[in-house]
Design goal:
With about 325 residues, the chain is of the alpha/beta class. Helix content is about 45%, strand content about 20%. It has 2 domains: about 5-140 and about 260-305, Rossmann fold; about 140-255, Rossmann fold, CATH 3.40.50.460. The strands form 2 sheets. Strands 3-2-1-4-5-10-11 form a 7-stranded mixed sheet, sandwiched between helices. Strands 7-8-6-9 form a 4-stranded parallel sheet, sandwiched between helices. Bound molecules: adenosine-5'-diphosphate (ADP) and 6-O-phosphono-beta-D-fructofuranose (F6P).
């Protein structure tokens, strides 16, 4: 194995740069030439690569985003797009690919692997929806940003005796919402994995005021059926009966930006180095993640084909501690 490529795909995640840096530096140390693919799978289809040496990845670790760029690429979902990508890599002498990304990106990676191209995945998404990694690159930073927002909102909520709906990201997954609710001391949490009765949430908020609380916070995952907008509409419809003053904040992409935390930089560095180790061993078709603190390999098929369950004991904890 002489030449490999690395790309970042899907929603960017703080720490992706640290993973690229680790791939390049570990690769070079193992005598590999490493190419960076610009703009995710789009760059793979267009043959948009740049050679990366150890200097090219200096000074990037502390920056959010991904210096290679990322994209959502519809063409790559077609077999034609995937075969074009493989033809380009073969022509450029690229013998293996490392894909840094989340569930969708690793599904694309699996497609390349099924076509017989040697690939390795690195678990990176703020959603934390990949089986095969307890946590993924970007989750810690995103969680801390959500938490800071909740802490700030609590102060203004208390001053005005208000209730707040705080919506965090999480396309099909309530991980971020649940963690943020526990760490932020929220009164209620709404996740896509559990059916929500808006009236029950309303009762929880009313009871919080009755117990003498000066504010009430509901953390809502964007992917829930009753997201913040839907819940706000329900509360508005019943506002005379419920009697609390409500505001809504959608944190959105703020969670994906900014400086990666130490936890994310270290996780990304470990996963990047471990992915190259697999390339050197000639062991392909796996997602590299972290399980119980150790590097773990999971077949891509399992990583993307299985739904990651929500930890119900944490959901119960959030309920007890509100
Ligand atoms: P994430 O990796 O953050 O979950 P997406 O779901 O948007 O992000 O996926 C990123 C990219 O991965 C898509 O734009 C597409 O190019 C590729 N991809 C997603 N799903 C598939 C699929 N079923 N087959 C092939 N490629 C896919
Ligand atoms: O997959 C990561 C994520 O941030 C999800 O939480 C969110 O639903 C989605 O990406 C947003 O995508 P975009 O950046 O394309 O708006």
């Amino acid at each position: 194995m002489k030449r490999i490529a690395v790309l970042t795909s899907g929603g960017d995640a703080p720490g992706m740069n640290a993973a690229i840096r680790a791939v390049v530096r570990t690769g070079v140390m193992n005598g590999l030439e490493v190419y960076g693919v610009k703009g995710g799978y789009e760059g793979l289809i267009n043959g948009n690569y740049i050679p990366l040496g150890t200097r090219e990845v200096g000074g990037i670790m502390q920056h959010g985003g991904t210096f290679l760029g990322s994209a959502r690429c519809l063409e790559f979902k077609t077999e034609e797009g995937q075969l074009q990508a493989i033809r380009n890599m073969t022509e450029a002498g690229i013998e293996a690919l490392i894909v840094i990304g989340g569930n969708g990106s690793q599904t694309g990676n699996l497609a390349l692997s099924k076509h017989g191209f040697p690939t390795v995945g690195i678990a990176s998404t703020i959603d934390n929806d990949l089986v095969g990694s307890d946590t993924t690159i970007g989750v810690d930073t995103a969680l801390n940003i959500a938490l800071e927002a909740i802490d700030r909102l609590k102060t203004t909520a208390s001053s005005h005796q208000r209730a707040f709906l705080v919506e965090v990201m999480g396309r099909n997954c309530g991980y971020l919402a649940l963690q943020a609710a526990i760490a932020g001391g929220a009164e209620a949490v709404v996740v896509p994995e559990i059916e929500t009765d808006p009236e029950k949430i309303a009762t929880t908020l009313v009871s919080a005021y009755e117990r003498g609380k000066s504010h009430a916070i509901v953390v809502v995952a964007e992917g829930a059926k009753y997201n913040a907008t839907a819940l706000a509409a329900y509360f508005e419809q019943h506002k005379d009966r419920l009697g609390f003053d409500l505001r809504m904040t959608i944190i959105g992409h703020v969670q994906r930006g900014g400086t990666p935390s130490a936890v994310d930089r270290i996780l990304a560095s470990r996963l990047g180095a471990a992915a190259v180790e697999q390339v050197v061993k000639g062991n392909f078709g796996n997602l590299v993640g972290i399980i119980k603190g150790d590097i773990a390999l999971t077949p891509l098929q399992t990583a993307v084909g299985t739904k990651k369950p929500l930890d119900m004991s944490l959901f119960e904890l959030a309920d007890v501690l509100d």
